[in-house]
Amino acid sequence: MATRGRSGFCRSLPELELLLLAILVLLNGTVLSLESASSSEIHTGEGNNTSKKPFPVIGIVYDEVSIPFEISLWVLLASLMKLGFHLIPRLSNVVPESCLLISVGLLVGGILKLARDEVPPVLSDRIFFLCLLPPIILDAGYFLPIRPFVENIGTILMFAVVGTLWNAFFVGGLIYGVCQLAQDTYSEINLGNIGILPCLLFGSIISAVDPVAVLAVFEEIHINELLHILVFGESLLNDAVTVVLYHLFEEFMESGSVSAVDAILGLVSFLIVALGGVLVGAFYGILAAFTSRFTSHTRVIEPLFVFLYSYMAYLSAEVFHLSGIMSLIACGAVMRPYVEANISHKSHTTIKYFLKMWSSVSETLIFIFLGVATVDGEHHWDWIFITATLILCLVARVIGVVGLTFVINNFRIVKLTTKDQFIIAYGGLRGAIAFSLGFLLHTDHKKIFLTAIITVIFFTVFVQGMTIKPLVELLAVKKKHEAKRSINEEIHTRFLDHLLTGIEDICGHYGHHHWKNKLNRFNKKYVKKILIAGDRCKEPQLIAFYHKLEMKHAIRMVESGGGSKLNSSFPSTVSMQNIQPKIQSPPSARPAERALPQLTKGREEEIRQILRTNLQRTRQRLQSYNRHTLVVDPDEEGLDDLILKKRRMMELDWKIKEMTNYLTVPHAQGSPTMSRTRMASDSQAYVKPGAKGVPSIQIDLASPQSPDSVRLLDEVGQDQGLTMSLPSSSSRAYKTGGKDDDRDQQKLLRCLSDPGPSADEDEDEPIPT
Amino acid sequence: SVSAAHLLRLHQRFQLLDKDSSGSLRSEDLEAALSENPIGVRIVGAFFQLGQEMVDFPSFVRILAHFRPTEKNRTGDGVQPDPGTQMKCPSSVAFQLYDRDRDGKISRTELLQVLREMLGLQVTEEQLQSIAERAIQEANLDRDDTICFDEFRKSLEKVNINHKLSVRFLE
């Protein structure tokens, strides 16, 4: 993104943002106060319906639209905030977004309180659990990197279950002890009155690591995959534990007594909650996959199925008091491989964008509401209780992580180092889930509990969230690799899988490769046939991955103008022209004759030399996926520009050759992926083949019988740049003539110029077997 | 080395595989165990280096010992492959499985063979070709159209080889 042009502009923008924010908040405040005014007016108005009033030309009827209006205002506020933060790069580098958002929430809450002396109860538990939380979890679940998750599942479960239990009992028990020690019968709230059960309940609420907060903070620090999946997986899976403990202790508190039977029932209930949630999710996932098999004629509503089934999974789990989060994750993870094989490329893009959008807005809203609700709530600040809670939480987390790692390392091949343990412990952030659960409490001591919860949340988000980035730098923790997944990795990973399965077979050892292999085979034989439409069920993983990779690569190159003029504004004009539908525009109207500026022969050689060495680096300069940026622009500066474009153009025609091959080969042999994308697009291609006077790269279209060959003819013959052309002779049986070639090529480029998201690691991750 | 209990188990397994109780395995015995594996023949070939017909128990164990979980963490295998020593690092084991003619490089044909074995009859020849081509393009740094060992290792930086090439059974 060119920031050069905005340096002068930048100075005025933050002020603009603040102004907008102020306007909005005032608007919100006045609107809300108007609402109360107008509602009172109506009451008085009904009293004198006898006297005739003049016809009201303009009136304010706010009641009817008040709720959607307010919701939209809040969402708008959140989005503008997001915009604002990224315009001030210095701030967003130092402070994580979650902190800023909570501050904004505090501000807004404060303003509203001053304006109306009352703050709307925005973070009601229903809104939170039913509307705000599901998008985030679905986003996380759908794009969950399955392979690292499953590889580390043992560790994750240990941390989630045992770790959370340990935290809950440690904090709950010790806080009870502290309360007993610190009791003071003369103070307003006697700490000694807090029984053991409320304390344990409190402990269970506060001990859960929160996925929203973890996501928000870890997203920005780009830590290596292992740690990320460990902390994140733990935060997701501990929902089951939290749900069970919460209900358990609540029940106990109401019934007043605990027996051994109850404890055992609690254990059983935990298993039911966790497994039940997963089963419900898997069930809906399979349904969604099955439905997507038949959507080839109604592509437009495909994303809707994904969202609806997932949401239904969540709600169904909540109905039975099962873990909604686990159900959502299971649904997303189960349906993804099959759905992605069935839906069109555009639907996939839509799903992705929608999920990211919703989860982004949701997260922003949650943090803002957290701020607002803090201002609103009734608080009781008790120094002893709160500091004790804070210290105990930290201590419990550290001890828990260290202890568990000690045990787990005996079973892991890749051990967790001290640095890792530190990051895992430090990354245990609490968030809005804890707050909402606290909100739901019915005990007498709700105020003090809520205050403590909020303090802990603020502490973890602000202090830990802000300092984790410098600490990661300081400790030189391994960061995420920026490179995208390459075909090599894919091939080698599969090769190694087969190799290890073989070794295990030789040893007669039924290790996890063996079972994985069995699962794959079952999957391929039965499940895929049912859930994936058409020919795709037979397509091996590697091929699917390869196609995806190729297509993305081709799209990217076509977008950035393979082989065309070098002005840096070019990419935008290319995509603009792609969108406008033109049927047969005359060649002069097309952007550029696809001629590169004059290159001398020696220069070309030089360039090719540099390309070879630079290509590896170029690939690794691509940005990794990040929630805030969905599109990656390749770096293009000066000479690299020229080099890259030339290289891309060369690669592009290579791709064209292949794609065209797939398109022109009769359907039985063609790849279904290509035909699907061909049907699903409507933008315009722009390559004009066969320009005269420029050296051409002769492309020999491969026939199924002969090995393919690309002959780079005459590159050095003329010095006028390159373009590509299809060979004019069309003596092959399956081609219908040169004209069709052109049209096919155009069709191909049309479907390739979908300006979809690129450089996305999640997408690249092949559906694992 | 491998512990005593594991040695015992391996020995039992060896005897189980050795159908004719001759005290050494032939390739058919091993292939029978790997019948479903697409690269089974290749793996078996690794056991029978130097053109032997049979493999006895010590060599059996020695080869399997390559797949022991090692002490090295995620810091990557900094060990340089030394053709002279017995113990090779895991990635060179994998490399040798690709590189059947032992010339130190994976050529296009070798890669094609591997792909053909793994993907079977489900793909067309051009798809295989293009995958192989792309793989070589990506990994190839020295313009020689083959993948040498360093390039191989580099392209696998992200994949944690030590982790992958460990069978816990052999601890």
UniProtKB/TrEMBL annotation, chain A:
Keywords carried by this UniProt record: Antiport, Calmodulin-binding, Cell membrane, Glycoprotein, Ion transport, Lipoprotein, Membrane, Palmitate, Phosphoprotein, Signal, Sodium, Sodium transport, Transmembrane, Transmembrane helix, Transport, Ubl conjugation
UniProt biased composition (Acidic residues): 759-769
GO CC field: basolateral plasma membrane
NCBIfam families: b_cpa1
Principal location class: membrane
Domain Cation/H+ exchanger transmembrane: start-end pairs: 76-473
Compartments (UniProt record): Basolateral cell membrane
Protein's UniProt keywords contain Ion transport: yes
GO molecular function: calmodulin binding; potassium:proton antiporter activity; sodium:proton antiporter activity
Recorded catalytic activity of this chain's protein: Li(+)(in) + Na(+)(out) = Li(+)(out) + Na(+)(in); Na(+)(in) + H(+)(out) = Na(+)(out) + H(+)(in); Li(+)(out) + H(+)(in) = Li(+)(in) + H(+)(out)
Biased composition (Basic and acidic residues): 737-747
Domain of life: Eukaryota
Location of region: Disordered: 667-689, 714-769
Protein's GO biological process: regulation of intracellular pH; sodium ion import across plasma membrane
Signal peptide (residue range): 1-33
Keyword Transmembrane: yes
Family: Belongs to the monovalent cation:proton antiporter 1 (CPA1) transporter (TC 2.A.36) family.
Organism in which the protein naturally occurs: Xiphophorus maculatus (Southern platyfish)
Protein's recorded name: Sodium/hydrogen exchanger
Start-end of Polar residues biased regions: 670-684, 720-733
UniProt membrane topology term: Multi-pass membrane protein
Residue ranges occupied by any Sodium/hydrogen exchanger regulatory region domain in the UniProt entry: 570-675
Transmembrane region(s): 57-77, 98-115, 127-144, 156-175, 195-217, 229-249, 264-288, 353-372, 384-411, 423-442, 448-472
UniProtKB/TrEMBL annotation, chain B:
Keywords: Calcium, Cell membrane, Cytoplasm, Lipoprotein, Membrane, Metal-binding, Myristate, Nucleus, Phosphoprotein, Protein transport, Repeat, Transport
Keyword Membrane: yes
Record-given protein name: Calcineurin-like EF-hand protein 2
Compartment list: Cell membrane; Cytoplasm; Nucleus
Gene Ontology cellular component annotations, sorted alphabetically: cytoplasm; nucleus; plasma membrane
Pfam families: EF-hand_7
Keyword field contains Thylakoid: no
Source domain of life: Eukaryota
UniProt source species: Xiphophorus maculatus (Southern platyfish)
Recorded GO MF terms: calcium ion binding
EF-hand domain span: 5-40, 94-121, 127-162
PROSITE patterns assigned: EF_HAND_1, EF_HAND_2
Predominant cellular place of this UniProt entry's protein: membrane
Family: Belongs to the calcineurin regulatory subunit family. CHP subfamily.
GO annotation (BP), single: protein transport
